[in-house]
Batch of 4 targets.
Target 1
Amino acid sequence: MRRNIDKVFFWTVGVLVLAGLFILISASMGLLTREGPTFYKTIFQQIISGIVVGLILLYFTSKINYKAWKKFALPFFIFSFLLTIIVFVPHIGFGSGGASRWIKLGPLFFQPSEILKFGFMVYLSSWIVSRKAEIKSFKFGFLPFVAIIAFVSLLLILEPDIGTLGVLAISSMFLFFLGGGRFAQLAILMLLGIGLIILLVKIEPYRMNRITTFFHPSQDLQGISYQLRQSLIALGSGGIFGRGFGMSLQKFNYLPEPIGDSIFAVFGEEFGFIGSIFLIGLFLFFLYRGFSIALRAPDDFGRMLGAGIVILIIVESFVNIGAMTGVLPLTGIPLLFVSRGGSAMAITLAEIGVLLNISKYRKL
């Protein structure tokens, strides 16, 4: 039976988007003092390419029956994979900081790995449902699952985009477990992941810096530990109630990427412990409400797809928060709904539209 969308979930997302925009405006004030036009350009791009485009995508994906995604899961995944490969094409792919992660076509500028994450979750959900009877099998369940992850991992390692790879791997393992995978199999995959990390460090020794910073945050405070140190200073300076909106000092010439992956530290400085707990609580309520939609979906695919989208969004968001508080190694992963990034915002809202469509068919 078709129902109305889950309005509580919809307005929860609305609060996250609106709060994220105000947090970004405040965090961008450092740009205003140094280069005014960049500030206005940043906010304009976030509103147009992120929120406006995202709401349009949300509208359309909320109108598409979620079961249609199962029919086109493989073509959509292949499309997103091929689109991501384009980042390596000269004059189209755009690189920065030694990584090729963006596509630039005239005024169009976006990160295709955001679409890849979406396509991968749609395909993995469809695959798990199709292998429901064999998912616990090592030969027909676990090994193909590892092969699917390895297929995507190779592309993300070549970019390189290890942060996105980590988010996808963690999200996939959660979804595989929910789909019936054995914990022992996931333990094997975690060991393989540790082996991959060791290999990546040997290939590019600079990656060891983030691991060193995680275990020894007081080492080389002006070098490899600088970002974490400045983030902790910002969070500590916020105290219980914060300095107030727009009053962060760390965003001015101290904290690297204050509108990117460090934005939670700026928020914590301005709104303090209470504000940080409120934002984390908002994400946790998003998790609760999103999982409620997934669990009440009328079929296995709806449950897997809904859970996969929620897990993907929550894992990425909490990896960012964990990195900024020193609980996890630094990754460069943005805080969804908050950090600058039109591609991330637009695709996330498209995913929300899929969840809203699933909610129309939820069981009471």
Note: The beta strands are 93-96, 99-105, 108-110.
Target 2
Amino acid sequence: MTERARAGAAGARPGAPDQRTRTRRAARWLVSQHRERIAFTGFPPEVAPQDLDEAYAVQAAFVRLKSRDCGPVVGWKIALSNPAMQRFVGLHESVAGCLLDRQVVSSPARTRAASYGRLLVEFEIAVELGADLAPIGRRYTRADVDQAVAAVRPALELADDRGADYASLCDHGLQLVADNAWNEGAVLGPSRRDWRALDLAAARGVVRLDGTVIGAGHGRDLMGHPLDALAWLADSLSRRGIGMRAGDVAILGSLVTSKFPLAGQRLVFELDGFAPVELEID
């Protein structure tokens, strides 16, 4: 028995469900929380993931259930690319999540505020893969992933924090992982296949709410360079035996702090070298 298994066995309560059973129950619990629009709250103790590996196992089970309504996985996302945000939720690294087919749309787009517990929007650089990034026995480098990128485009991430209490979020970092990092879709702007002519690290993104600038950032805010963020994402998936496939989309983290738009408002994200991404909130 491994040290980890011994520790788990020693800490298990008599009659407590095993990890596989906990994973299934946790995923079903998340589905019911979303369906019933229940405010974000901690897992019941008997199904709560015990570590990051278990949290990702719950995420995979949750995504499988969610895909029945939202379609198959067509891409990936990064959350918490900033170390300060990681500490804020009690984690020590960024978080990977999935994008589902029927939740990924093109700009201009509309969504309803009432469809979310609390809508939050992030402002991202997205890549389209033209080649697979399969699991490998070493870390991915920027040069590795550069060769796999077919196109780059600006994007908005749509997420739902379900009214989370941010003051206590540091106690629920593993739940954020399990809950697919709160993703509820993405809005993709026009793509450029000549993206190597651009300086992605220096590219500036500006966010306007009803015409007023409310935030700005640069590509270098994504782990130093957007392709470094992509390499991190490929590594995170590779460690779990998951590959990224040609045709997948990856959104690489927000250049600007999350915004919480309300019904009747309009967001525009302008990234240097690209047409704007537009979202109307009904």
Note: Residues 1-12 have pLDDT under 50 and may be disordered.
Target 3
Amino acid sequence: MRLPPFEYYQPATLAEALAILSEVPGARAVAGGTDLLVNMKHRVEQPPALVSLSRVSGLAGVRTEDGATVIGGGTTLKQVQHDEGLRAKFPALTQAAAVVGSYRHQTMGTLAGNLCQNTRCRFFNQSVEWRSVRALCYKAGGDYCHVMNKADVCFCTYHGDTAAALLVLEAEVRVEGPGGARQIPFAALHSREGKTPLALGAAELVTAVVIPDGSASNGAATGGSTYLKHALRGAIDFPIVGAAVWRGGDTMRVAFTGVDRSPIRAAILEEALAGRTPSADLIAEVSPLAPKGATITRSTLQPGSFKRELMSALFARAAGSLL
């Protein structure tokens, strides 16, 4: 499949990139392009212009600021995976980066790109020919969500791996746009709307991820973090379900991806764990609560019942590894 025609810009600075995104309606930023370019080939996304970030300096790398770990949005997933400091302090993040797609996805794809990828659905992520046999879904420009048979709503599902890890690490993201820079909680990055999954302005970019030192593993016997995913194949596939767990003493934080229109914290499960010392018996007791609060639909080929079972099983395995 070929890409549709588009204008291509290669600015040298972030300011130039933001200016182009502001001045060219519908323009999109591209780094690795492992998600966007595939969607363009399928004609499910057809931006008139792409703004490459490949020549913009200062967007990659890992550093420490005021005790927090700052990861540039342009840092590749392979760099995240192999950074010794990140592997020691935030294993859930490096584990998640290590299971994104294939080797080439990891060497090309960036952390910000993985976080900002589009939501997915079996009715949306198809070729033009496949989609032409029925009315377009709401996300593709039609009137109805074929998953829910409802008008003016989209239940596409978010499947990014690294997002679940950053949720349990209580990270924040730095965003820059024409109006300046701001730093927001990671949970505020996603809109929980399938059609427009990011809560960003049209010309805003995620420039960095900030993880507080309080979420670091620090080698503690009763602390740490981990990420597990289940996919049809060991490489390339998006997670059917991904689960991240963080433990600090008697506190556990849990997040999932692949089960809703955005990555989600398992609030009901966390409430059941609160104030109780984690143990194998406790994990077995509360694991059935893992799917509570998730809006699971048939946006993928797998039934909702299967995903609910996976959520409980992956939580139990991940939490059990931190005992």
Note: The mean pLDDT is 95.
Target 4
Amino acid sequence: MRDDCYPQQLNSVNEYKVIKQKFSDEVLKKHLQGLITVGSFQIDPKTNMVKWICFDFDGELEQEFEKSRTLYMRLVKKGYKPLLEFSGRRGYHVWLFIEATDASIAKKFAHEIASGIEVSEIFPKQEKIAQTGFGGQVKLPLGLHRVSNKKSYLLDRNFKALNTEESLLVLHKIFNNKPDKINITTLKSF
């Protein structure tokens, strides 16, 4: 995740502006309180590395839930530790936090693992960005969606909604454990 700038969602629209300030604990606190809604730019422009993959499912909620659950279970069966999140509006995100990996490898892995599942968007979108570029971004979990005015939340392994406190514990556990390592050569066709 880049920490030299961050995208902030504008009120009542699904658009973001770039805030060219260091991402801080105070920014994260405001996001979690619903005072602002921020995202994360994925690709580090200096190294071309990413530390997360996100699969975005948008559309009719019931159908998007089924597709996101299928991908979530596919990742679990392959030994990964994904997170499933209701995005706060019209869909779901499946997150996979990984050790720093070249964006081109992460993109290839993401598309292969999602093969046969209709995903609205897959991040990383790009294989690389210019030093002055920003690349793709996704709204951080547990934020208020400025269009729907609904907060996103995580789901547990039984697909039950977690409250904010439970979600924070899950995120804390993920970030304090070793991230997943993706291995493109071990994937098999689905």
Note: The CA atoms of residues 88 and 150 lie 5 Å apart.
